[in-house]
Amino acid sequence: MADVHIIGGGLIGMLCARFLAQAGVNVAIYERGELGRESSWAGGGILSPLYPWRYSDAVTELARWGQSRYEEVAAELRRESGIDPEYRRTGLLLLDIDETERQRAEVWAGRFDYHLEYLDRKAILKLQPNLGEISSQAIWMPEVAQLRNPRLLKALRISLERLGVAIHEQTPVREILHYKGVITGLSTEQGQVPASRVVVAGGAWSAEILKGLGIQIEVAPVRGQMLLFRAEPGLLEHTVLSGNHYLIPRADGRILAGSTLEHVGFDRQITDEGRDELYDFATRLLPPLEECEVEMQWSGLRPGSPDGIPCIGASGSLSGLYINAGHFRNGVVIGLASARLLADQILGNPPILDESQFRCN
After folding, report:
1. Which one in 86, 170, 233, 332 has a CA-CA gap of 20 to 30 Å to 40?
2. Which domains occur in the chain, in start order?
3. If 0-12 CB within 10 Å is exposed, 13-18 middle and 19+ buried, where does residue 269 land?
């Protein structure tokens, strides 16, 4: 029987399971659909928050911890699985920078020891030729890396299987069972499962899962649509961010354009409006994309939360219940640290960061 039962088989749940299993804990994952196929699969994999100085210190601290360790984790997963998660330092070019934004960025970079460079229009085009509509100045973060989400998740699944994690797909949890303030089990379509420690890492569905326990967290679905262009290697060398949208170059030449921000509940449909928004952005920013095939359009439901600060830790309401949810647009970059923080709490290890920043209730 598992020692820890994780509800949610996205990146956060999978990373939590890996840390726990590496420590010798028997872990089971329950996923309502397929492992790693919701927002974890759909995202871009940029290992930085977008315009990171706009976020709270709590988000920066989670991101910084993960940024310093993801290269090693990607290498470990490649060795364990034979699948390359494609960790690549492609840098991050942030457009639309005015003097106020530059000052905020300078203060933030100084506090957290990040390296920034300031580029004028000529330097922008020297760094990244072929750009169309660009601002007069930009910030360049050369150390920012990326991962290719689907490959990361495939590699992670193989790692979990090798570690003996029990994976239950197509197994929605109907109810978390409890008695006198203590977790006692799970109710699934396959029957009841005894459980004394349960982690809710259900992404955009986390608040719905907890509602039945009378626990409220501020997590709600936010749809993000994406486009994938089939391009030749070299057309785009660096990740470019403008406004709420970005272009990400993959190792094989494909270019990912994202993403929309849509508050439409649990509706995952792709739309013509979403495609037009992303296509117009991508081809304005990088005009040669007009000659490239749009290979795919998809969407994911992000777990939106106030200020993008996730809820990480033990529930104050029920003994044995833990929560890791609300990563919004930064699930990959802050997911590694949030998973480690929760795993250490379950294991009784000293925390890697101040846990009080992420309390759930």
Report:
1. 233
2. 4-59+150-219+306-358 (3.50.50.60), 89-144+221-304 (3.30.9.10)
3. exposed
